[in-house]
């Protein structure tokens, strides 16, 4: 494992700078306060809740009655995020947030009582929620916080703080209760993800481990044979190890003053490496602002605890010029990170970012690129992302678009639906870059809308683009509590069939060839006449092929075999077989789906293979309907750039038009 005291001096200095930014600015680290930066301050309090966007647009709709959605969208930066939290929670209190309700002439504290050991203080946040028609002032440890009429404020406190409202001290004793101390040792025989929690889901951690929570709001830490201080009360202990294992769980009541051993061994559901398949996460941030500073050592512990074969830690900016972890990229570019071994490879890669055109990951770069982002702080949306694709490719990288689409989107929807809503990080240039062969993959599996991205992906491959399925979670080591972005890396993975031993080079080559499937957990196989994803079969009209799809995982509810024309066969999980008489060129993919499940660390269960391509008489698939759809997309992209693009010269805009025209020529040629 990587030992943080031995990291390079340049990296250590950068981590020190990040700690200073966190101390000075809090969770945003002083980044330019565009909306997704400002929303960082709310994320920890809204895990496991819904209605965020409804509350945002409801508040703006009240302020601007009758305003169209586009105008409300452009006014999101006006919102008071503390009031948004209050609106979303709608009276609920959380384990990490107490509420002080202020009404006319009355104050009331509400909280989920937390256990404390040996009289230690509890660190938490106080939501001051005012229903008064006049401003109110609350003193916290001598500092005045003014809350406007009907307003709300989030204030960091401890259970030892002095809180005064209306000149009267507030009794904070409901925040905590003393508990007798005990010790717990957890052991599995190999690194695991552990959750130890008691009443109200209150988590307990080994000394020095960060207070992390996953998508299901379960506390967690990684390692093996670890000791932690806990209350001598009934606790749940849970062990898991990434998606290839099930979880093991036990209830225990440790004896006061003693040490209790809990041994749990998660059962393996499938062994991908034994079949030559290795799972990777192509998009993970070590640091990207956050409520803690991510270190290489912690990333290594998480990778091994999740048994994640390949980890791509990307250097990238947030909303300003600073590129986080660029020092680590400078030092380790082209090299495995120190904790890598025969079955676990970690590299520092790149996230190239433009919020209007889309974000790219790069895995396997041999050196830092000359540019990491465009379009921030009012700078030009230039050059096109295609220029970054070419440079990153020249540095030896596999490239792909990350967290592609955020809004609901179906196979039958028009392209315009995916291009709406301004600078929302959607992968809008993908249709041009794919046509020109400038990107290798699309992260069909990510923290954004998987079904929307899968729909766009099938249009792309149906139009003749050879793009592989990958997965990039956008997990962030520097966020301890932020929905699926504080999940451990690898909660979604791309599995690649590797020839020979696992290395960064062999994994990258397997991804380039499309020998992949992406998944939130299920194992998914596809065989077309004995050939797997990435293969191309050259057939004659009328030939018959047998197709088999297999899934493993208790969370799968439906299995499908799809071609360019839609669903060929569908049924229950396990195994599905179909016969296809080949006419026009097509592709075959397998898809496994399911509803919310404890093994899925996002809102749905999903797995999707890269295609097996079925050429006919040497002709590739280029379905007229899909090609026409891509041409419509390019028209909509041009209109979007005219309306919302930022350019300093006409030449900059002309470069985008030239890229789009080159892509149009490719698609039109496929029609003939």
From TrEMBL:
It comes from the Bacteria. NCBIfam families: CehA_McbA_metalo. This is CehA/McbA family metallohydrolase. It comes from Streptosporangium vulgare.
């Amino acid at each position: 494992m990587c030992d943080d005291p031995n990291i390079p001096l340049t990296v250590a200095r950068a981590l020190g700078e990040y700690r200073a930014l966190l101390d000075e600015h809090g969770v945003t680290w002083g980044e330019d306060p565009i909306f997704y930066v400002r929303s960082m301050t709310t994320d920890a309090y809204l895990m496991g809740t819904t209605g965020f966007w409804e509350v945002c647009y409801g508040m703006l709709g009240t302020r601007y009655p009758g305003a169209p959605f586009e105008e409300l969208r452009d006014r999101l930066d006006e919102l008071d995020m503390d009031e948004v939290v209050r609106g979303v929670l709608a009276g609920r209190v959380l384990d990490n947030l107490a509420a002080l309700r202020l009404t006319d002439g009355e104050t009331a504290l509400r909280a989920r009582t937390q256990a404390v050991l040996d009289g230690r203080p509890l660190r938490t946040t106080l939501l001051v929620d005012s229903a008064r028609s006049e401003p109110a002032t609350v003193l916290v440890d001598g500092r005045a916080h003014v809350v406007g009429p009907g307003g709300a404020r989030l204030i960091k406190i401890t259970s030892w703080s002095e809180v005064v409202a209306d000149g009267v001290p507030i009794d904070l004793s409901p925040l905590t209760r003393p508990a007798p101390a005990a010790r717990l040792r957890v052991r599995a025989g190999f690194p695991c993800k552990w959750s130890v929690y008691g009443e109200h889901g209150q988590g307990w951690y080994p000394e020095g481990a960060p207070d992390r929570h996953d998508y299901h709001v379960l506390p967690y830490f990684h390692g093996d044979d670890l000791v932690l201080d806990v209350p001598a009360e009934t606790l749940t202990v849970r062990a898991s190890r990434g998606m290839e294992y099930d979880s093991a769980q036990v209830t225990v009541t440790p004896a006061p003053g003693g040490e209790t051993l809990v041994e749990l061994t998660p059962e393996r559901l499938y062994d991908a490496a034994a079949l030559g398949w290795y799972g990777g996460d192509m998009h993970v941030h070590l640091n990207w602002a956050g409520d803690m500073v991510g270190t290489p050592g912690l990333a290594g512990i998480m990778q091994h605890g999740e048994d994640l074969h390949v980890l791509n830690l990307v250097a990238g900016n947030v909303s300003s010029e600073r590129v986080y972890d660029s020092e680590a990229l400078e030092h380790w570019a082209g090299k495995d990170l120190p904790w890598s071994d025969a079955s676990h490879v970690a590299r520092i890669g790149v996230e190239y970012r433009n919020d209007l055109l889309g974000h790219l990951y790069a895995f396997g770069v041999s050196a830092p690129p000359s540019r990491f982002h465009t379009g921030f702080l009012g700078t030009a949306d230039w050059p096109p992302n295609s220029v970054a694709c070419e440079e990153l490719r020249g540095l030896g990288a596999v490239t792909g678009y990350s967290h592609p689409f955020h809004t609901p989107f179906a196979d039958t929807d028009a392209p315009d639906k995916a291009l709406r809503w301004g600078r929302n990080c959607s992968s809008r240039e993908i249709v041009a870059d794919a046509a020109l062969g400038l990107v290798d993959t699309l992260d069909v599996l990510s923290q954004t809308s998987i079904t929307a991205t899968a729909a766009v992906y099938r249009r792309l491959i149906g139009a003749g683009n050879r793009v592989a399925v990958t997965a990039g979670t956008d997990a962030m080591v520097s966020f301890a509590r932020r929905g699926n972005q504080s999940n451990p890396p690898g909660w979604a993975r791309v599995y690649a069939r590797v020839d020979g031993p696992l290395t960064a080079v062999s994994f990258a080559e397997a991804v380039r060839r499309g020998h992949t499937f992406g998944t939130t957990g299920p194992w998914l196989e596809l065989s077309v006449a004995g050939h797997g994803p990435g293969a191309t079969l050259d057939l004659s009209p009328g030939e018959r092929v047998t197709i088999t799809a297999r899934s493993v995982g208790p969370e799968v509810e439906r299995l499908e075999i799809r071609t360019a024309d839609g669903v060929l066969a569908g049924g229950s999980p396990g195994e599905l077989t179909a016969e296809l008489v080949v006419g026009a060129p097509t592709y075959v993919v397998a898809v496994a789906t399911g509803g919310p499940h404890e093994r899925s660390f996002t809102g749905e269960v999903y797995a999707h293979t890269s295609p097996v391509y079925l050429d006919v008489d040497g002709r590739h698939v280029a379905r007229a309907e899909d090609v026409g759809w891509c041409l419509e997309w390019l028209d909509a992209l041009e209109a979007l750039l005219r309306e919302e693009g930022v350019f300093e010269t006409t030449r900059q805009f002309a470069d985008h038009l030239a890229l789009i025209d080159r892509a149009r020529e490719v698609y039109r040629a496929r029609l003939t």
